[in-house]
Amino acid sequence: MRFPTDFLWGASTSAYQTEGAWDADGKAPSVQDMKEIPDGTSDFKVAVDHYHRFEEDVRLFKELGLKAYRFSISWSRVMSNGKVNPKGLEFYKKFIALLKENEIEPIVTVFHFDLPYEIHEKGGWENRETIQAFADYCQLLFDTFGQEVNYWQTINEQNVMALAGSIIGTSNKSMKEKFQENHHMLVAQALVTKNYHDGNYPGKIGPAPNIASVYAASDKPEDQLAAMNMSALRNWLFLDAAVYGVYNHNAWHILSKINACPEVTEEDKKIMLEGTCDYIAFNYYNTMTVSAYYQKENKIDQQSGFGIPDFFQATTNPHLPMTEFGWPIDPEGFRYTLNEIYSRYRLPLLITENGIGAKDQLTEDGKIHDKYRIDYLKQHIQQMYLAMEDGVEVIGYCPWSAIDLISTHEGIEKRYGFIYVDRTDDSLNTLDRYKKDSFYWYQKLIAENGLNEEE
Ligand code: BG6
Question: Average pLDDT for residues 44-66, to the nearest whole number?
């Protein structure tokens, strides 16, 4: 399986889950710094100390052979109360310059779950003023990095924030309030996309939702309809807005039935139509399976889904194995999802997250034997290749994560990286970096630009 020569083999992280230095050099707190941390997990104050160790990390990324690195910029590090923080901006200047020196393409997400706390206190995304605050912040980034960065993403997993915000610590409001927040995010995304296009920068800009094809639990027509409904609310609402600048009709209908329709002005509609994206970045962990709404009990997790009376109810797919953290593993579903997205939108696709969270063990001789990660990634890459043979245009693949980081709500015990970081949820230890078996496997895959039968 050989990939196009310019294929962007990358890896992914986010600012608050890696950087640490939560109050260093003028950085203001974000909602992630202020949220209540679940017992037995870690806060994000030190994370994996990437802020202080970025040079070592880039050396390792280079050794891994990365052609691209997808990371996010921390809004509250570069701006606070509407004022630029020069030291925070300087960090990203040095960082992006170093990536480029090492011929690693920077792929930048401008907002990944870490709203500045001062904005949160003024109502966060529910407050319309946040739209302009976001546009000002993005303009600073475009002015500073517009000639250096070719791939921008507006908002990471806006759909997860809207549908499972209480789990990842971004919002704990009613559906009505959350979909008002969501609407303001859609307008903000469109506004900065328009501003980016008007600025004639050389790169591309797009959204980065978490997209999962939705299977029906059976061939009963009502289960098929449930799958259609969930997909409209969970997936197509977000991509129809980003690509076409309109609300998906079916998602809007569901919102109206649960009294969660946002207020939308004529000006909002205009902005949404004017700021449509150039490509689609998306995160894929697994598919969803739903039935019609039969039960009343819902377990909510950002990947296990949820139910809406009269519309759908998430259920377990008995055909799929699970990770040790209870997420289904569905490589064929990745091919299915890639095809489904491409059939609908016909835009180039960039995978910005895909990976397996596991309790990796560091051996006494400094090794990490993570065969399960190699298996997971290999199966997904094979299915991505098949999707490309199907005719889907995929421009790059950035698994989660380049280096171990703190999970959204399950601590560092749940590791994803190619590079192990010596710390636990109880103790910071040395924070030294170790290369996992998956590091060497991915290094070879990138060097050979694909997979061989026996690998
Ligand atoms: C995505 C996020 O939801 O999945 C990441 O964009 C996150 O920030 C990743 O870390 C894995 O989820 P979790 O909950 O295992 O950290």
Answer: 98
